Amino acid sequence: MAMIALGAGLLAPASADATTLTDAMVAAYGDNPTLTGERAQLRATDEQSAIVRAQGRPTLGASATYTQGLQGLRVQQTFNRFLSAGAQLSVPVYQGGRVRNATHAADARVDSGREALRATEGNIFVSVVSAYMDVLRDRAIVQLDINNVKVLQTNLDSTNDQFQAGSLTRTDVAQSRARLEDGNAQLTTARSNLVSSEENYRAVIGSSAGVLDQPPPLPALPENPDRAEDVAITNNPNIVAAVAAVKAAHFDVETARASRMPTISATASNSYVRDTDASGALAGERLVGDASQAGVTLTVPLYQGGLPGAEVRQEQAFESAAIESQTATERQVVATVRADFSSYAAAVEVIRSSEEALKANTLALEGVQAEQQAGLRQVLDTLNAEQEKLGSEVTLVSAQHDAYVAGFALLNAMGLVDYKHLGLTGGALYDSTMNYRHAIHDINDWSENPPTQPIAKPTYGPQLIPENTPVTPATN
Question: 209: buried, middle or exposed (CB in 10 Å: 19+, 13-18, 0-12)?
Answer without folding.
Answer: buried
